[in-house]
Amino acid sequence: FYTDMAGKMENPAMSHVFKDFAGEELQHKRKLLMIKDEKILAVHPGKVMDLKITDYLVPSEPTPDMGYQEVLMLAMQKEKAAFRLYINLSEKAGEENLRNLFLFLAQEEAKHKLRFELEYDDHVMTDN
Questions:
Q1: Tens digits of per-residue pLDDT, 9-23?
Q2: DSSP string, 24-48
Q3: pTM (2 decimals)?
């Protein structure tokens, strides 16, 4: 999403922001895959785990005709959903290291959302 949006931005600074976020999200993915590969987030026998992933999905997808305001709104929604996901996972993590990793990732998503909110405030919420 962020890589695609970076290529569509007319503002070079926001293009750079989207590229940076794409890189950060790839690092998050690597950390989560490491958890999966090492089976740190194991399911206990007889218990069905609900990660509630569908609770964090953003309903809309980017379209080619999206305006800058819509792109920023979608980005904010995605970051908020990711934040909620990591907070929920941190509450379910049994190990302190794992809990701290999820809290770190949640903090990263909160920073991303704030960056988009500031951009929205500066460039969309202006008195004309």
A1: 888 888 888 899 899
A2: HHHHHHHHHHHHHHTT-SPPPTT--
A3: 0.69
